[in-house]
Design a protein that fits this description.
mainly alpha
Length: 55
Amino acid sequence: MELKKELNNDKLWKQWRKARGGVCYHYKNKSFGQGTVKPLITISCQMRLNDEVKR
């Protein structure tokens, strides 16, 4: 939510979420294939990308 507030633009926020989701989807499937850890990896990936963008 901090990043959403910082961006202060709903269209840009939606674009960011779509791009972030695509990147995380690619890497979780590349690294983990089928598995129960995938949902946790998705959340972790999204949080890490948000943190990197805020830097």
